[in-house]
Design goal:
The protein is of the alpha/beta class. The chain has 5 helices and 12 strands. Helices cover about 20% and strands about 25% of the residues. Helix 1 runs parallel beside helix 2 and helix 3 packs parallel to helix 4. The relative contact order is 0.15. It comes from Pisum sativum (Garden pea). Pfam families: Pyr_redox_2. InterPro entries: FAD/NAD-bd_sf (IPR036188), FAD/NAD-binding_dom (IPR023753), Ferredoxin-NADP_redctase_2 (IPR050097). One of its GO terms (molecular function) is oxidoreductase activity.
Length: about 250
């Protein structure tokens, strides 16, 4: 069984599928503006998830869920799914590998620094683009970045555009130096920045029934979509609560 996504819903589904000996294959996905682990990776502190009376960071919570999924034998792939064909049987899934690649992260706050440090587990190098002349993160977080040889911080720098190769694949980022307006290209295979929350269902548009806001429609009381064998859980089908605990139980 293939599971796309690695938020609380994706990891919980993975754990249950693995315990049922169905050998789950998980595409954790970097998503747009995030990292493996879903939307909680951009949340500094989670204080409403049961079992953690003192709270827990989103990064730590998702790391624990991921390790629990691996403990039960899940096969995890740190990459995005770029296309899905639900009209074939079995479904066809196309992905792009970003593990071991050069990545770019935009921002200088605590959450962004957390993302950059987390990505080092999967990337060979991370470029951190900061529009200001200093980081806004706590000193301890800054020290971790400066002490890591695989992270390069570019101050007074902004991302201008994505550069693609002849195949239409991302090959770099066009950046501009603030003040001098000097432009250059950084080689990179992925760009991460905080763009807010939206449903991540574009891959299924036109193939599966969605509501007017882009959420997957499921049959009441189930996780079944309009396509047999395709199930939805978490924020992609929940336009009301959108909480970690409800995602895990969906």
């Amino acid at each position: 069984m293939v599971i796309i996504g690695s938020g609380p819903a994706g990891y919980t589904a993975t754990i249950y599928v693995a315990r049922a000996n169905l050998k789950p294959v998980v595409f954790e996905g970097y998503q747009v503006g995030s990292v493996p682990g879903g939307q909680l990776m951009t949340t500094t502190e989670v204080e409403n998830f049961p079992g953690f009376p003192d709270g827990i960071t989103g990064l730590d919570l998702m790391d624990r869920m991921g390790r629990q999924a691996e403990r039960w034998g899940a096969e995890l792939h740190y990459e995005d799914v770029e296309a899905i064909d639900v009209n074939s049987s079995p479904f066809l899934i196309q992905s792009s590998e970003r593990k071991g690649q050069i990545l770019v992260v935009v921002g200088g706050g605590d959450t962004t620094i957390q993302e950059a440090l987390y990505l080092i587990k999967y990337a060979c190098h991370v470029h951190l683009l900061v529009r200001r002349d200093q980081l806004r993160a706590f000193k301890a977080m800054q020290d971790k970045v400066y002490d890591n040889p695989n992270v390069t911080v570019h101050f007074n720098t902004e991302a201008v555009d994505i550069v693609s190769n002849t195949k239409g694949q991302m090959s770099g980022i066009l950046v501009r130096k603030m003040g001098t307006e000097e432009e250059s290209v950084l080689e990179a295979k992925g760009l991460f920045y905080d763009i807010g929350h939206s449903t991540n269902t574009q891959l299924l548009k036109g193939q599966v029934k969605l509501d007017q806001s882009g959420y997957l429609l499921v049959k009441e009381g189930t996780a079944k979509t309009s396509v047999e064998g395709l199930f939805a859980a978490g924020d992609v089908q929940d336009h009301e609560w959108r909480q970690a605990v409800t995602a895990a139980g969906s």
